[in-house]
Amino acid sequence: MDPTGNKTVNVALSPGDISPWLRVAHIWESGSDDAGRYMLRSLLDFELVFQLEGEDWFEFPWLNGGISVKEGMIALIPPGALHSQALNPNSKHIAIHFDLQANKALKPFDMIQAFRERKAEPSDIVLSPPPITRISYADSSEDLLIPMLIKPAQPEIWRDRFMQLVDMWSLGEQDLLGSQMKFISVLTSFFASFELKNVSMQNSAEARIKEFLAHLSAMPLWQPWSVAKMANYAGLSESRFRVVFKEVTGTVPRAYLENLRIAGAARLLRETSGRIGDIAKEVGYADQMSFSKAFRRVMGCMPRDYRSGQPYETNIGKKKAV
Q: How far is CA 28 from CA 49, 50, 110, 154, 208, in A?
């Protein structure tokens, strides 16, 4: 969280050229069957949502709240931000998916990672002020700060601009040079219009690691992670992330995540009668065997022995080598 009270979501761009790329621009209209749908998902690209009619809700469980997108408002959903989108009956919005560094191999709608077996009930807690997306770029000394919820003074202007992109995409012309140039013009105008300037943000690597750890502890333990994904969330290069992470926590990222998951599993073993295989999946392990090995490595005993109360010596908190 920055000193102004905004929670932040970090996105780290790779070294190299900035190459905006339009992937999808379409209109989504929900019906009565969409009411109460709160499936968790994350994206592999950026999404801009312009609300044409009605109101939709984006829930961010790891931020302990959400944003309400009303008619004429714009939401910016960054890649990797776990969320659920609650669609209200008879609501309609424009959805624009794009890259800032083109990944043309990622096809339309393959950018959505849906956790269909998981549901996130809405908290009805409005994040106010709305979160900020902080975009870091290795070749720039300054970050780009964009609110995740925007209420433009003249929404009709943005509706018309975004509809031009929808028309291009519906005609299958989004890959044409002229269409991509038009998209870049719209995107540049968007960032120039809504960039937050003169905002004091904690920008040190240590602050980013601590901010990420707070996010990590609030997110579901089954959420898949790689070190690269962790670094992206923290807005740091992977090499820098590894160094500062160990300075802050005393251990390496994978060991920290393992300890966090096993601590959660230990709590479930103590407080519930759930099957060990189900608990393994709940804390992020694909099978009971790999979970049991990790549990013994951290806790010094097997899950069944821990549940039965047999003596054990935990390894949680012990530092591990890189």
A: 10, 10, 17, 22, 35
Report d(CA 34, CA 32) in Å as an integer.
5
DSSP letter assigned to residue 108: T
Nearest CA to 57 out of 79, 84, 82, 31 is that of: 84
Task: Determine if the peptide bond prior to 129 is cis (ω within 30°).
Answer: yes
In the numeric block, the tokens 């077996």 are attached to 117
Backbone angles phi, psi at 116, to 5 degrees: -65, -25
| Residue 313 amino acid letter | E
Q: What's the whole-model pTM score?
A: 0.68
DSSP letters for 140-155: -SS-EEEESEE--S-H
Angstrom distances, CA of residue 110 to CA of 23, 45, 169? 10, 10, 16
Q: Quick one: CA torsion of 319, 10, 14, 114, rounded to 10 degrees?
A: 90
* Alpha-carbon torsion angle 112, 116, 119, 124, nearest 10: 30
Helix 253-271 and helix 238-249: axis angle, to 10°? Answer: 50
Looking at domain 8-194, its CATH architecture is: Sandwich (2.60)
Q: Look up residue 103 and give its two tokens.
A: 């990944």
The pLDDT assigned to 198 comes to 56
Report whether 98 contacts 76 (CB < 8 A): no
H/E stretch holding 85 reads strand 83-86
Are 126 and 66 a contacting pair, CB within 8 Å? yes
Looking at CATH, the fold of the domain delimited by 205-308 is given as Arc Repressor Mutant, subunit A (1.10.10)
Tell me: the pLDDT tens digits for 156-208? 999 999 999 999 999 999 889 999 999 999 999 999 999 987 555 445 788 78
What is the C-alpha separation between 255 and 232, in angstroms, rounded? 18
CA 126 from chain center: how many Å? 17
Q: What amino acid occupies position 181?
A: M
Distance CA(124)–CA(193), nearest Å, equals: 29
Determine how many CB atoms are found less than 10 A away from the CB of residue 220: 16
Domain ranges of the chain: 8-194, 205-308
